[in-house]
Design a protein that fits this description.
about 0% strand; mainly alpha
């Protein structure tokens, strides 16, 4: 929006900061508790960022709907209604994610266990910061808009001036609209273009009979492709990623790849019966067997 009042850049930045705080809190707590940090844990921040941004959009959308529908001036009532609409979705999403990752801690692989502990705890902190920190940021941003203050400097801006250019209005006044001389926050808010698109075009298009048939056919093709793909799965995991960074397995695989990778796969011979290794003839027989295998 070309408005220096309605612009929510700082609100979006605070949503990302909220996810970052969740990652820092989780990593700090796990390291304080002595949980080993492995290389797979480095992927956790991207998961937390995705969920945190999704929660941010839910909170902002609920706040905007509450503000446009009821026009309440009481910030507590607006925030309460926002939580009543968005908190349920955020809570269910967080519970399912946390449950899935904490179940993963039952695995026997130490690296997978550490990854699930770090990520599951980060989801808990992400929920806490969304319900507390980001809710407070939304209220502060609302008060800034009510005071008709600039999004960057938080300084009061003037109302629309008819003799100024559109660029000046967008940067210093708050709107390119020349139809009203009232502050930005007192103008009636229209529906977002994306909301109008889904309501007027997307919804009617997908309720069409031929569209429903096409969706069913596409889903059947996707399901068939997925089943076929499951039959083509091949093992290709690096075993070093399943061990802790300080495990003896890591340098073993590093040295094996460095010095013996050109000799092909390893072949092991196991003797299941007791052998008289003190008998020289037995030792010579084992050595001859090994030479024949080579």
């Amino acid at each position: 929006r070309l408005s220096c009042v309605r612009n929510n850049v700082w609100l979006a930045c605070c949503g990302v900061v909220s996810a970052g705080l969740a990652v820092l809190s989780s990593f700090g707590l796990m390291l304080f508790c002595g949980v080993p940090f492995v290389v797979t844990v480095a992927n956790a921040p991207f998961l937390i960022l995705g969920v945190g941004v999704d929660d941010m959009f839910l909170m902002i959308a609920s706040w905007e709907q509450s503000s446009s529908k009821h026009k309440k001036s009481d910030v507590r009532a607006l925030l309460a209604e926002t939580y009543s609409e968005a908190a349920l979705s955020v809570t269910i999403t967080t519970l399912t994610d946390v449950l899935a990752f904490f179940i993963g801690t039952w695995t026997a692989f130490p690296s997978v266990r550490s990854f699930c502990l770090y990520t599951g705890t980060a989801f808990v902190f992400c929920y806490v910061y969304t319900m507390t920190f980001f809710g407070a940021v939304i209220v502060l941003n609302h008060k800034r808009e009510q005071g008709n203050r600039h999004w960057l400097t938080c300084m009061p801006v003037r109302v629309d001036e008819a003799d100024k250019s559109c660029l000046y209005s967008a940067c210093c006044v708050g709107s390119c609209s020349r139809q009203s001389s009232q502050p930005e926050t007192h103008q009636l808010e229209s529906k977002h273009p994306m909301s109008r698109f889904f309501e007027q075009y997307y919804g009617p298009f997908f309720t069409n009979t031929w569209t429903k048939l096409l969706v069913v056919l596409l889903y059947a093709a996707y399901l068939g492709g997925s089943v076929y793909g499951c039959t083509q799965i091949r093992e290709g995991i690096d075993l070093r990623n399943l061990a802790s960074d300080d495990s003896y397995v890591v340098p073993y695989y590093d040295d094996n790849e460095k010095y013996f990778s050109e000799y092909g796969p390893r072949v092991m011979v196991v003797v299941t019966e007791s052998v008289e290794y003190w008998n020289e003839s037995v030792r010579l027989g084992i050595a001859k067997c090994m030479q024949n295998l080579e």
